[in-house]
Amino acid sequence: GAVVSQHPSWVICKSGTSVKIECRSLDFQATTMFWYRQFPKQSLMLMATSNEGSKATYEQGVEKDKFLINHASLTLSTLTVTSAHPEDSSFYICSARLLDRDDNEQFFGPGTRLTVL
Amino acid sequence: DAKTTQPNSMESNEEEPVHLPCNHSTISGTDYIHWYRQLPSQGPEYVIHGLTSNVNNRMASLAIAEDRKSSTLILHRATLRDAAVYYCILSPRIYGGSQGNLIFGKGTKLSVKP
What we know:
The complex is a heterodimer of chains A (117) and B (114). By secondary structure, chain A is mainly beta.
């Protein structure tokens, strides 16, 4: 099956620093990747849709200048949390959709746990 | 996006079948029915999806009502590793340029007793 990886799996950083999270599709190409955030005991919330070679589309209420998304290739999307603060501590998950499929089957990464001190 | 309704929680005994219901009365003709599950501290895992006909794979079966307003995910023999939150999600068929977001609800938390 299609595999999506994320790196790092967890990160602890000081308030005010920036953190980059990578999302890779290992054995398939994905023109579209998605970034989600999940707070404890809550469901996944879509943050943005990442399109290869173009600007990301952000959901309402998500600051595009704070959560920078780059989708430079068909297998890699990155999310950078700039000037992180404790309220940004969360579980960040990406997903990727197979090319040339109309059923929107998506494959999810294992997630990245971000803790901002 | 069309909405789904699932029970908050369900319990099952190990090695017994589990039927997880999902109501989606506002489903449109081009909506696929997706099921994902999430174990604690992990990303969601694809389980199964379908459009109109019942579907089977190595993990589960998906039974879709004739009017498509409800569906049931069937785990034929629950194991302890099946304990997870199961999400039923509707997603329209993807056409060129459409984003195709998956909107996660609260899902059903399945507990499996040994």
